[in-house]
Design brief:
By secondary structure, this protein is an alpha+beta fold. The chain has helices spanning about 1-10, 40-50, 60-65, 70-85; strands spanning about 85-90, 100-105, 125-130.
C-alpha cells in the first residue's frame, strides 16, 4: 500500500499553462536596462520597436499612439537621438528645398561616424542632410611669432 501512495503523490503535480497571444513583440532588453534614459524615452522606443517595419513614422502618429502630447514625443525623440537609438535625417531636393524627414530606429545605441545618405535608398538627386553632422575637432596650433607676415 505504501507503494501506491507514492505513485499517487508523484502523479499529482502543479501545471502552469501560459496563454500566448498572437500580437506580441520580441525585442532586446538593452534599452530597458539603461539607467541614463527616462521612462518616457524607453517607452517611446519600445513602442516604435513594436511597430511593423513598413509603418510610416510621423510625429503625429507617434503622438496618437503614445497618448502623450507633441512636446513630450519630441522631447523623447531628442533624448533617443542623443543616446544613439534614433537617427534623423532631412531630405532636400536638387534645389535645396526641404522634402522630408527620415528616422532610423535601432535596438542598441549606434555611433554615427558616416554620412547616413550612404545607406539610404533615396534617389541620388536627393541628399540627406544630418540634423547634427559630426564634425572633427580642428587641430589648433601655436602661432609662430617669428617673422610675422606684414
Amino acid at each position: 500500500m505504501a507503494k501506491n501512495k507514492k505513485n499517487d503523490n508523484e502523479s499529482k503535480s502543479t501545471v502552469f499553462r501560459v496563454e500566448k497571444t498572437k500580437n506580441y513583440t520580441v525585442m532586446s532588453n538593452y534599452h530597458l536596462k539603461s539607467k541614463t534614459m527616462s521612462l518616457r524615452a524607453k517607452g517611446l522606443l519600445t513602442l516604435m520597436l513594436s511597430l511593423p517595419e513598413d509603418w510610416d513614422f510621423s510625429l503625429k502618429g507617434l503622438e496618437k499612439l503614445s497618448g502623450d502630447g507633441m512636446t513630450s514625443v519630441r522631447s523623447a525623440l531628442k533624448e533617443l537621438e542623443k543616446a544613439g537609438y534614433v537617427k534623423r535625417g532631412r531630405f532636400r531636393n536638387e534645389l535645396g528645398q526641404l522634402k522630408g524627414t527620415e528616422y532610423f530606429i535601432y535596438e542598441q545605441p549606434q555611433l554615427f561616424n558616416t554620412h547616413i545618405s550612404d545607406v539610404s535608398d533615396k534617389p541620388t538627386s536627393e541628399k540627406l542632410i544630418l540634423d547634427k553632422p559630426i564634425s572633427e575637432q580642428p587641430i589648433l596650433g601655436e602661432p609662430t611669432l617669428e617673422n610675422p607676415i606684414l
